[in-house]
Amino acid sequence: MKLTPAQRSVLRAEAHAIKPVVIVGEAGLTPAVLKEIDASLNSHGLIKVRVFGDDREARITMYETICTDLRAAPVQHIGKLLVVYRPKKDAPKERSERTGKGLREVTIVKPSPSGTKRPSVTKVMVKGNERVTQGGNIKRAKPRQASSKKSALGSK
Q1: CATH number of the domain residue 42 falls in
Q2: Helix or strand or coil: residue 64?
Q3: Are the C-beta atoms of 71 and 86 separated by less than 8 Å?
């Protein structure tokens, strides 16, 4: 994957604020470390990798290996920090089922009064200003109280 200098500059600026997600230790670039880097790239897209070890040539080969094996783009290599970028995969996120504007479906489970029978399960549509209490009742939010000081100042 190739990046233009402008894209690389933008990514370097974004990477400035993030901390290293993966740390490569004495064992070097093992398959487990590559798998962790791959998982981090899938979830974050832009990551920093810290490499312990004083051999600069070994760090450069690790950097090239990471980029070629994981199909990622090299962004920056400063000292023992490697910045790598790969666009995130767009996975459809599961969202809670909402029907209409401000409505959500809530499941209320109430235990039986005797305690020996099955609990009763009901599904209820709740508006945005309503909440379900611990007892399973629906309460509407109270209107905000008007400040007596503000209303007194407004009448002058």
Answers
A1: 3.30.110.60
A2: helix
A3: yes
Assigned domain for 101 exists = yes
d(Cα 120, Cα 63) in Å, to the nearest integer?
58
* 76 within domain boundaries: yes
Residue 153, pLDDT above cutoff 90: no
Task: Check if the beta carbon of residue 64 is closer than 8 Å to that of residue 56.
Answer: no
What's the pLDDT at 34? Answer: 93
Over 70: is that where the pLDDT of 14 sits? yes
The DSSP secondary structure of 84-127, one letter per residue, reads: EE-PPP-PPPP-----SSS-EEEEEEE--SSSSSPPEEEEEEE-
pLDDT in tens, 32-46: 999 999 999 999 999
